[in-house]
Amino acid sequence: MEGVWHYDGRTARRRLPRLTIVPDGFLLADEDGEDGPIAWEALVARDPSGSDPVYGLKGRPGWRLGFAGAIPPEIAPLLPRAERYGRLVDRHGLGRATLVLGAIAAVVLFAVLSAPRWIAPYVPASWERRLGDAIVGDFGGRLCNGPGGQAALNALVRKLDPAGPPLEVRVANIQMVNAVALPGGKIVIFSELLKEAKSPEELAGVLGHEIGHVRHRDVVQALLRQAGLSVVLGGLGGDAGGSFNALLAATYSREAESHADRSAVAALAAAGISPLGTAGFFARLGRMEARLGRAGVALGYVSSHPLSSARERAFARSAVKGRAYAPALTPEQWKALVDICHNDPKVNRTPFFGL
Amino acid sequence: MQDGHDAETAFEFNGTWREFAPIAFTNLLLTIVTLGIYRFWAVTRERRYLWSRTRFIDDRLEWTGTGRELLIGFLLVVLAIFLPLFLLQFVVQALALRGHVAAAGLLTLSLYGLIFYLIGVARFRALRYRLSRSWWHGIRGGSDDQGLGYGWSYVWRSALGYLTAGLMIPWSMSSLWNRRWNAMSFGAHPVTSQARWGKVFLRFILCYAVPFVAMFVLIIAMVPMMMVAGDPRAMGGMFIIIGLVFLAFYLILPMCALAFYAAFLREAVGAVHWAGLDFAFEARTRHWLLLFLGNAGLWLLALIVALVPLAALGMFAGLANLQAGQSPFADSPGTLVVFFVAFAVPFALVGPFIRYRSWRFGVRWLEAGGEIDLDVLSQSTTREPTQGEGLLDAFDIGAI
């Protein structure tokens, strides 16, 4: 048979051999010699050259057989089919493969999104504590120890959280209005937040919120979710994966945020502390944000705990008319707490690295 | 060797976007339902199409890379490089929080140095991988160099380029280009390249001078403004000057960079020889500009395609009176999903079509002249890399 062309994979010369069909395949012969017999099953379909169908040969890189024009009908059924989408998809067809793969993807995404909630309670507290220690250490000597301050803070924590296992709440000398819950039942209040708060009642709501995060194991959940999502969506690559990841994580943290707010409201009510102070504090921070703009308070409380009128209202509405609320701390305790960093001569006072 | 082809040009692209579009659409579909894993096979399908529609002299090119080897390359890079880097980042954080600022800084600095080195290695290895998977006349390309030495070369030459206030950038670009291509071969014939930085230096200097000239002109223009300060008409003048500054930074500077890059590629590709053939790349600045304007048009088209259905569904109605601190998606996660799909799908399709246009552009302006003896052009003996361009993929940079 004529009309075939051939590269042998050893030189770039294009040959025009005769193809002869034999019982166990075919032979290629030209003036330089003969190749074969070659089994039809050993051929692999390759991309066409112009309108010429092209086949390669398993185990012979560069070996190519091209048919000038159409494939003769007696050979056509013997030749392998070309790969299109990839072997797995080709076997099942595009439509069916899409449906099955889409269903699997939905299950995987659901599992990854909900798994942290199931796993978090089983993460041993000792692991979590060690993780917290590893991340935080002693905050570079910034944890404040002014006389009476820590005792006052502990008293407030006990009022808000009388039953649970012990928490480690500290004040760090960092010039930002913020408070964070960290792995291992650690809560760190930044010194600037104490300066902005006008009364212990204002601090109590913020503290109750962070205690809520610790008690719901939100910190471990958030860590697990971030890790899981970055593994699953790592495949998407580029910006789409990253921003989608952030969106998903953000929607969940809002859920955790409102949960933490609800437990803060409950803790204030149980401790007999007025929630109006916290509502007023949020209102003041909101005005401050409006004045300074988003950039001015970046990395602060407002950027990690978005303020809204709904949040403020939730605290304000929980106030019971006519109830005689006791002060959260005595004036002496509050003063010691506010000055906890100022009264500590040993604390690190250099500007905080990187923030 | 003419074979009835258009003998005017050695390279010719004869694909059409109508043939390419089904590939791009099904690639996106499969990439979404596999949570991104399919993208390695998607890249392979794109390249197989582009290569197979590209004629060089008398036969088309062929891409034989597979999705599987790209996936393996990606996984190796994640395990061997990104995981350790990710963990080291926690070490840096812990060091900083404990007050060991100097140690944290030193560690960060050496991490950046390592990444810089790896980017150099990645560029080299990606070129080697792509040549080893590109076939023509049953012959492939490749290199016996692993590219580890090139990584160092990349670090010190680039550093020298920037440390001399950027004046040696043309030198570092040309010498790295030569070093990369001189290590490559196709078939048994080595590729040689002798790009000379002196040829493009004049254009570079002109480009370099633009910000200084602009500054000077601005100062001169300020003088009459100062004299009439307080006059309301002067305010209008101020706005014109501010407008000119923006123009200079967002239009003239990129244009200069483009003019330099166009000249650089003409010189660099023109310096490449292989098997008796001299290569040339003839695209001028205005051709590059048209390419980029076309790409910008694609982005614009995607934006329109994304906005029209959303507007038709009245999805923006709720955004008009949004309050500070209020999330537009808080009540309806469904809205969020619709937004994501409406934007992500058109924008995800821009990438493949930009790659299509870039390939067509490259082939259109690429030329080769000279004599080639196919009988003595024998197969490459270089070792074939067993995995794909994971490192390059990870840093998201181009190969050529």
Q: Could you list some keywords that capture this structure?
A:
heterodimer, A: 355 residues, alpha+beta, 3 domains, four-stranded antiparallel β-sheet, 12 helices, 10 strands, rod-shaped, B: 400 residues, eight-stranded antiparallel β-sheet, 65% helix, globular, disordered N terminus
> Count of helices of chain B?
11
Report mean pLDDT of chain A, rounded to a whole number. Answer: 82
In percent, how helical is the residue content of chain B?
A: 55-70%
Q: Tell me the count of domains of chain A.
A: 3
Largest sheet of chain A: 4 strands, antiparallel
Mean pLDDT of chain B: 84
Q: How many helices of chain A does DSSP assign?
A: 12
Strand content of chain B: 5-15%
Care to describe what's here?
The complex is a heterodimer of chains A (355) and B (400). Helix content of chain A is 48%, strand content 16%. Chain A is an alpha+beta fold. Chain A has 3 domains: 79 residues; 38 residues; 212 residues, no CATH class. In chain A, helix 6 crosses helix 9. The longest helix of chain A is centred in the last third of the chain and has 34 residues. Chain A starts with a strand and ends in a 17-residue tail after the last helix. Chain B has 400 residues and is of the alpha+beta class. Helices cover 65% and strands 9% of the residues of chain B. In chain B, helix 7 packs antiparallel against helix 8 and helix 8 crosses helix 9. Chains A and B meet through strand 5, strand 7, helix 2, helix 3 and helix 8 of A and helix 1, helix 2, strand 3, strand 4 and helix 3 of B.
Topology:
The complex is a heterodimer of chains A (355) and B (400).
Chain A: E1 4-8, E2 18-22, E3 25-30, E4 33-38, E5 43-49, E6 52-57, E7 60-67, H1 87-92, H2 94-119, H3 125-136, H4 149-160, E8 168-172, E9 179-182, E10 186-190, H5 191-196, H6 200-215, H7 218-233, H8 238-271, H9 276-296, H10 301-304, H11 309-317, H12 331-338
Parallel strand pairs in A: 8-10
Antiparallel strand pairs in A: 1-7, 2-3, 3-4, 5-6, 6-7, 9-10
Helix pairs in contact in A: 2-7, 4-12, 6-8, 6-9, 7-8, 9-11
Chain B: E1 11-13, H1 17-33, H2 39-52, E2 54-56, E3 59-60, E4 62-63, H3 67-97, H4 101-132, E5 134-136, E6 139-142, H5 148-163, H6 169-182, E7 185-186, E8 189-193, H7 198-227, H8 232-270, E9 272-274, E10 277-281, H9 285-312, H10 333-365, E11 366-370, H11 390-395
Antiparallel strand pairs in B: 1-2, 2-3, 4-5, 5-6, 6-7, 7-8, 8-9, 9-10, 10-11
